[in-house]
Description:
- Mn(2+) binds at residues 153, 218, 233.
- Homodimer, forms a heterotetramer with a Cas2 homodimer.
- It is a single chain.
- The protein is of the alpha/beta class and 314 residues long.
- It folds into two domains: 5-82, CATH 3.100.10.20; 94-312, Four Helix Bundle (Hemerythrin (Met), subunit A), CATH 1.20.120.
- The chain has helices spanning 53-61, 84-102, 104-128, 134-142, 152-164, 168-171, 185-207, 226-231, 236-245, 255-265, 281-297, and strands at 5-9, 13-18, 21-26, 31-34, 39-44, 49-51, 65-69, 75-79, 268-271, 278-280, 308-312.
- Strand 7 and strand 8 (75-79) form a beta hairpin.
- The longest helix is centred in the middle third of the chain and has 25 residues, at 104-128.
Amino acid sequence: MADQRVLMIESPCHISVDTGRIVFRKIDGAQRMELASDLAVLCLHHEQITISHHALRVLGQSDCAVIITDGQHMPSAVLHPLSQQASSVANTRLMQQIALLQHKGRQALIWQQLVTAKVHNGGAVLRQLGLNGAVRMERLAQQVQPDDATHIEGQAAKHFWQCWFTHPRLAEHGQKRQKQDATDPVNARLNYAYAMLRTSIARELIASGLNPSLGVGHHNQGNPFNLADDFIEPYRCIAEWAVAQLTDIDQPFTGNAKQNLLKALWCDLILTHDDNNRYRLAQAITQTVRSYCQVLEMTQHAVKLKLPKDWFTS
C-alpha cells in the first residue's frame, strides 16, 4: 500500500472503465482517469455516486478495496479483494490484532499511551486557551498506568470540562458536556467535530487492512468501530481547541457554520516519536495508524505510537 493511493470521491459521479482505466465522470461531463493498480483503496463518500460492475471487477482484480460510507460519513460496507495477496494481508492483520489482544501486557501499554496523550493534550488545550487547570492535567498525565488501572482518564475528563466551559465564548451557552442529541451550539459543534475525526480514523484503519471492531481500550461488542474510538482519544484535543476558537458559536449550526468548524479542524500537527515533522490532520492520522501497524508487527515489548503532541493553525 505504500506505493498506492487512497482515493476519496466526495461528489456525484459515475465510475466506469475505459481502455482498462477507471473513469470518474462528473455530472457536468468533466472526467478523470486512474489506473486501478495505482489505487489501494477507493472510498465512495457521496450518495449520488454510481459504479459499474465492470469497474468493481477491475478494482477487485487490482487488489483495490472499495469503502462505502453511510449518512453519518462512517464506513458502512467494505468490498475486499479476494486475491491471494490481498487476503494474505487482511488475514495477517487480523491475526496480529488477535495476538495483541491476547498479550495483555502490550495491550495495556498501548492504552496507557493513548490515555496519556489524551490527558496531556487536554492540558495543552487549556493552556493555549489561557484557562486554569493545565497544570493538574499535566500531573494527571504523568500518573497514567498501564491499562489506566487507576482510572486517570475519568478524573481528567471531569476536571477538563469544568475548566473548558469557563472560556468566555463558551460559558454563556452552558456548563455541561452533553454527548447524545445535543441541541446547544457548543455541544452540537463538539459532537460534529468528534464525528468527523472518528470518520477519518475509521476510514484509515480500514484502508490499512485493520479490523476496526477489535479495540484496545474499547470492547463494546455492538460497536463496529472500537479501534477508531481508541485512536480518537489523543485527537479529541483538536476538536476541543477548534470549537473554542470559533467566532460564530452563537449562530445556528448550519452548512456555513459546519464549514467554518471543518476549516478550524484542518491544522498542522507534530507527533510523538517522529522527529518534529509537521503533518496536516489527515496525514497525521495516517502516520498514527501506520505506527500501530508497526507495533502489531513487532514481537518485543516496545510500544511507540505516533500520537499528537502539538498543533498549529495553518
